[in-house]
Amino acid sequence: MATAAADAIDFSGLIRPGDTVVVGQGCGEPTALAEALVRQATTDRTPAVGPITVFLGAVFSRSFEPEATTGIAFAGYGALGGAGRLARAGRLDVVPAQYSQLPGLFADGTLAADVVLLQLARNGDRLAIAGNRDYSLAAARRARLVIGGIDDRAPWCHGGELPPDLRIDLTVETSRAPAELPPARIGPVEERIGRLVAERIPDGAVIQTGIGAIPDAILGALSGHRGLGVHSGMIGDRMADLIEAGAVTNARKPFDAGVSVAGSLFGTARLLAFADRNPAFRLVPTEISHGVEVMARLPGFTAINSAVEVDLSGQVNAEVAGSHYVGAVGGQVDFVRAGNLAPGGRSIIALPATARDGTVSRIVAGLDGRPVTSLRSDADLVVTEWGVAELKGQTLAERARRMIAIADPAFREELERAAHPLLKSDRR
């Protein structure tokens, strides 16, 4: 394993034309390496770097802005953070795969990974993957070249220790503040949804949440709970707040007792300080963080996810708004199914009833060709600021009635007209 200075690395001798470069995501993005890659791949150099494709996950830096990356092709599993800006610019080619499938797709070569850039943290003489234990490790095992940025400001997390079979070909010493995702702004609608969801989560439940104002509001509303556990694909600042407030103890989990587990850190310096060398938190690989069979063994496992829209039958679109890709398949399918399978578990889809300042309903008659992220056969609870629809085990007609009841009142008559043939067939 060779070591170089960050400002001295020359990618032209390392990256070949046509290569796919996989870059670590979230708070584990190797920003110094990413910025050097963009700089060298988008300027006239001899020899040139590229053409290349960069595979991105959820990136929170400004390393890959559309106007600054001309000549680089981008692929990714969803439009989160900086990847969303690329998607809106028509620059992101989306792989619509479940998050849990990504390690296997890299491992068998279905998804290309020629070069992998990782962020690393040091604790004495021990190196760890900083901020993530995700698909990038499977990509690294397959790659021709793996470069690690060892950053003295990156969090060293239990569970992130470098696996013995992972080869790092070149390391670069860096000192950069990790990429951050600030907590979302919470308004009255999110607060109302947070309270409605929290009322349906018992003490002792094991929770999973995603990114955004709705999950953050729900976590805030759970501060009075006790004995909660955490098993999630990611955690952010407000999850750290909940843990440190004493609401989370993980005491009732049949495994990982006393420890909150997640696959990624998506937050700010506050979260990184919480996770750094904290024995009560552990990074886990994707097959555990998103493993349906694993989560189904957790009594009271409660999956909390959001959506772009939900139709009257319970179908969920979490990917596309209008003509723009704005989300991801992500881990929703895995978490929803685990919530349905776990003893006493629940699956909750929470979303505002409207978008665009109340002019568009997010409860819709049908998805009309837009993606079905989660199937209606997996539907359990759907929550808006107008109430809670219990869909599990209900007929299509009854589902329509319950979904209309939690739509914004301005759209209920329109939804009733659209559902009229279905409701008419339910002769009571």
UniProtKB/TrEMBL annotation:
<dbReference type="GO" id="GO:0006083">
    <property type="term" value="P:acetate metabolic process"/>
</dbReference>
<dbReference type="InterPro" id="IPR046433">
    <property type="entry name" value="ActCoA_hydro"/>
</dbReference>
<dbReference type="GO" id="GO:0008775">
    <property type="term" value="F:acetate CoA-transferase activity"/>
</dbReference>
<feature type="domain" description="Acetyl-CoA hydrolase/transferase C-terminal">
    <location>
        <begin position="267"/>
        <end position="419"/>
    </location>
</feature>
<dbReference type="InterPro" id="IPR037171">
    <property type="entry name" value="NagB/RpiA_transferase-like"/>
</dbReference>
<dbReference type="InterPro" id="IPR026888">
    <property type="entry name" value="AcetylCoA_hyd_C"/>
</dbReference>
<dbReference type="Pfam" id="PF13336">
    <property type="entry name" value="AcetylCoA_hyd_C"/>
</dbReference>
<protein>
    <submittedName>
        <fullName>4-hydroxybutyrate CoA-transferase</fullName>
    </submittedName>
</protein>
<dbReference type="InterPro" id="IPR038460">
    <property type="entry name" value="AcetylCoA_hyd_C_sf"/>
</dbReference>
